[in-house]
Structures are given as C-alpha cells and as structure tokens.
Design brief:
Elements lengths: L3 E3 L8 H13 L4 E4 L7 H11 L4 E4 L2 E2 L5 H14 L4 E6 L3 H7 L7 H16 L4 E4 L4 E5 L11 E4 L3 H10 L2 E5 L6 H14 L8 E10 L3 H16 L15 H9 L3 H6 L3 H7 L1 E3 L3 H13 L3 E6 L8 H14 L11
Parallel strand pairs: 1-2, 1-12, 2-3, 3-5, 4-5, 5-8, 8-9, 9-10, 10-11, 10-12
Antiparallel strand pairs: 6-7
Helix pairs in contact: 1-2, 2-3, 3-5, 5-6, 6-7, 8-11
Length: 341
C-alpha cells in the first residue's frame, strides 16, 4: 500500500525541522511527501531542500495556487526541482481561495475555473521544452522556451472539490487531488473525474487519484480535536470550499451565519466533535489514521495522503509521531534500493 504525507506548514516548524520530517517519512517507507503553500514556507525552496536531502521519496506541491505564479515561473521552478530529483517531482496546482489570492496577495480571484484551466494548459506547454505561444482569457505566454532540462516528465495534479473542477481535472491533469472528502464520498467525486476524462477522449484509469486528510497520532488527542474543530470551521466557511462540507457538517449553515456575523465563539460551538472525527483521523496510536488510509484505498484512491499535524503551535513531536505510527500500522518499509529508476 502507498501513503503520502503532507508537511504541516502551518505548525510553525522551521525548514530544517520539515526537512527532517521528510527524511523520517522516507525512512518509514512513505511514497510521497507533499508541501502546500499558505502562509508558511515557500514551496519551491522547501521542496528543493527536501530533494537535496532525500534519495527516493516522491516530491509534490499540494497545492500551489494558479493565481499567485505565472505558468512560466512555475515551469522554471518544477523543472529545476526535477533536474535535481529526476522522476521524483509532481506539480500540484489548484485555484486556492479568495482569502489567499485576494486578501493576502492582493490579486483578483476571478474566474477560478477558467484561470486554472488555462494555467494547466500553459504550464504543460512550458514544461514540454518547446517554444510556447499561448493565448487565453486569463493566461498568456509568448516566445518562451524553458532553458533547463527537467530530465524527465513532470506530472501535473489538479486540486478539485466541486463537480466542474473535478471534470476539468479528468480532462486535463495527470492526477486529481481531493481533500475534505470522506471515504464514502469518493465514488461520486470520481464519477465526475471519469466523465471529464471520457469527454476528453482519455482513459480514466490513467488518472492518479490522490486524497488528503488531516491526521494525528500521539498522546495529545483532546488538544488535537480542539484544534481541528477550529481548522474545520476555518475551511468550511470559505465560500469556494463550503459545498465539500455539507454532508459531514450538519450545522454548517448556522455556523457560517455566526462566523460572518463575527461571533466566532458561537460558530465554533456548532462544530461537534463527531464532525472532526468524521473528517479527520485522530488517535493515540495511529490506528485511525491507518484505517482512514485503507478506507480511501478501498473507495478508489490510489494515494491517500495524511497531513501530519501536531496538537497546536509548539507541538513539533506530533507530526513525527504521526508519520512513524501510521507507517508502522500499515506495515510500510522503504525499498531495498533507494535510488530512483
């Protein structure tokens, strides 16, 4: 069985700590290490440090926003990583959210579907090595040619939550990246992905299915559940993400109303502990995290990915404990040869 681990980039860990966590994941037999990009480490720098400090593990962004970089700069970054770690690099992209794109970066979060479609099309061309001339409504690249050899092809994953984006991932991407999606919801999501693939004349079985979930294995279970109540609320009240939480979060409408009115305490009180356990894997010994991973695989996911967190800021042991415990529960072990083929 394969398992991925997302670096806890919002836990206040330093770059050296995150590199050590990736090395631990590799030593434990983890297949892929992923780095998102929110308000912590810059993803290319961190992945580069991990690439230089590991030998086997696959490296992916999970996920960078299609608004905050140009396709050309993104291609340059991933080609650089791929030349450093040939065959080990995946470019994960997605639309992100109005908060990240609009409030934090001061950019207009307009037409996320169209922008992401054009971004992926242009990024693939830029990574191809030939001269690129691409004209879209939101993305344009002219007379660009990549001047560094990525050595091997860099696959592209597309983050998707809603039906339109799921179908787009099926039509364009090498993989679909799901998140905040319970195992029992996977089948319906994949129906959209496969419909998009078939409409584009593609074989749906060739699309890698990746699903990320939050997980913790360690002694601070109650503190972690409290933390995840806040995490669930912060994501579920984002307009672009809300639809993904409807089934698991019965009080979402009331919580969103309280949140938008500025009553954070009332909103948080509506996040039942059962909602956290339905969406996240929290236990002392890694059993729930391993169970989540197995359930995702049974539902059709190729690569379940645990976002290995601590109980809160300052708990830097939690992510390491989570990686070791879930790897042990799943019986993972690194291959005998550590060099990529």
């Amino acid at each position: 069985m394969r398992l991925g681990v997302t670096m806890p980039i919002e836990d206040g860990m330093s770059a050296p700590q995150l590199v050590r966590l990736a090395q631990t994941a590799e030593a434990c037999g983890i297949d892929t290490v992923l780095c998102g990009e929110v308000a912590g480490p810059e993803v290319m720098a961190l992945l580069g440090a991990i690439a230089a400090s590991t030998e086997r593990i696959r490296l992916a962004s999970g996920i960078i926003a299609s608004f905050t970089r140009t396709p050309t700069l993104t291609a340059m970054g991933f080609a650089t990583l791929s030349s450093l770690a040939p065959g080990r690099v995946v470019a994960g992209v997605g639309a992100s959210s109005p908060i990240v794109v609009g409030r934090w970066h001061g950019l207009e979060f307009a037409s996320p579907y169209r922008r992401t479609k054009e971004f992926v099309e242009a990024l693939r061309l830029c990574l191809g090595g030939g001269k690129v001339d691409y004209d879209g409504d939101h993305v344009a690249v002219h007379d660009f040619r990549l001047a560094i050899d990525p050595e091997l092809r860099v696959p592209i994953w597309m983050a998707a939550m809603n039906p339109q984006m799921l179908r787009l991932a099926g039509a364009l991407a090498d993989g679909v990246f799901l998140t905040w999606c319970r195992p029992e919801e996977i089948a319906a999501k994949l129906d959209d992905v496969h419909a998009g693939a078939r409409a584009a004349g593609r074989d749906p079985s060739e699309i890698e299915v990746v699903c990320s979930f939050w997980g913790y294995s360690g002694p601070l279970v109650d503190q972690t559940v409290d933390r995840l109540r806040r995490v669930v609320l912060s994501y579920a009240t984002v307009p672009t993400h809300a639809a993904a939480f409807v089934e698991a979060f019965p009080s979402l409408e009331d919580a969103t109303r309280a949140w938008n009115a500025g009553d954070r305490r009332a909103a948080l009180s509506l996040v039942e502990e059962s909602v956290v356990h339905d969406l996240c894997a929290v236990s002392a010994d890694g059993t729930r995290t391993a169970d989540f991973a197995r359930r995702y695989v049974d539902a059709g996911v190729d690569l379940p990915v645990v976002l290995a967190i601590g109980a809160g800021q300052g708990d830097h042991d939690g992510p390491f404990s989570t990686v070791r415990e879930v790897a042990g529960q799943l019986g993972l072990s690194p291959p005998e040869t550590s060099s990529p083929s």
